[in-house]
Amino acid sequence: MDVRSLYVEPERADREIEWPALECVDVFRIFRSGPVETVALRGFDLRVERQEFVAVLGPSGCGKSTMLALAAGLDQPSAGEVRAFGRSLSRLDEQALAAYRARDVAIVFQSDNLWPSLSAEENVAAGLRLAGWSKGAGSVARSALAAFGLAERGSHRVGELSGGEQQRVAVAAAAAREAPLVLADEPTGELDETNERTVIDALERLRHDYGSTVLVVTHSERVAAAADRVVEVLDGKVLP
Questions:
Q1: Residue-wise pLDDT tens digits, 40-90
Q2: What is the number of structural domains in the chain?
Q3: Helix, strand or coil for residue 77?
Q4: CATH code, domain with 79
Q5: Are strands 237-238 and 229-234 parallel, antiparallel or unpaired?
Q6: Could you give the CA distance from residue 124 to residue 137 in angstroms, rounded to a whole number?
Q7: Are 136 and 211 in contact (CB under 8 A)?
Q8: What is residue 90's three-state secondary structure?
Q9: What SS3 state is found at 157?
Q10: DSSP state of 109
Q11: Position 186 confidence tier, pLDDT thresholds 50, 70, 90
């Protein structure tokens, strides 16, 4: 999917320019509760190229998840700019942000990515319908599940799937709608080594087979080893 028509300002739209998938430019995020001020990000800079697999490492509380929320358009920076495919997310209105989240960015959390009352196939198809698919969602969902080794699990509800299978369903949902940007927050944090490997393989397939850019926040050395590049974060800043 070419997202430039949606997210690049008309006066800058140049077919010869390939904007990075994600840019964070001198980003600050400050949370205030009464007189208490917490600085989660302080001058955060990050550039992620298209079809790159980047792992972000750092201790708990260093700002990694805050950065993902900004990249997903779920939050806004206090200062600085977050750009997806060349367009500042801060300049999008609520309707455009909703379209961005529905069609062009997929989020894989540590757990609870799926609607528990639905089957695996229904979960993937529901994501497609939210992204605007009017026909064929079930067929595309089945194909995506099969691509990630879940052809026989499509009719199973969430409670009948292992943790690794649930995460692969979430990855299959991103693949089904060909999300250009996939953000994963500790996607293997609750998995054993065997299931972790299957999820890492699934994330790598998103990049190689579906052309997605993958940005993963993780504590796992195995996830980091699979990435093209590792970014370390401390106290709200990217380490040099």
A1: 999 999 999 999 999 999 999 999 999 999 999 999 999 999 999 999 999
A2: 1
A3: coil
A4: 3.40.50.300
A5: antiparallel
A6: 8
A7: no
A8: helix
A9: strand
A10: -
A11: very high
| CA separation, residue 228 to residues 44, 51, 178, 204 (Å) | 20, 10, 20, 10
Locate 175 and state its tokens: 């693949």
CA distance 169 to 196: 14
Strands 36-48 and 22-33: antiparallel
- CB distance 211 to 18 below 8 Å: no
CA distance 125 to 53: 26
Beta-bridged to residue 230, according to DSSP, are: 55
Range of the structural domain that residue 60 is part of: 4-238
How many helices and strands (H and E) does the chain possess? 8, 10
Give the number of other CB atoms < 10 A from CB of residue 217.
25
Longest Cα–Cα distance in the chain: 55
CB neighbour list of residue 225: distance below 8 Å, 6 or more residues apart: none
- C-alpha 41 chain-centroid distance: 19
Per-residue pLDDT tens for 28-54? Answer: 999 998 889 999 999 999 999 999 999
CA–CA dist 60, 131 (Å, integer)? 32
Query: Side chain identity at 81, as an amino acid letter?
Result: E
Tokens coding 217? 């926040």
Q: Are 209 and 239 in contact (CB under 8 A)?
A: no
Q: What's the order of all strands across the beta sheet hosting 79-84?
A: 36-48, 22-33, 79-84, 87-88
* 31 phi and psi angles, rounded to 5 deg: -105, 135
Does residue 176 sit in helix, strand or coil?
helix
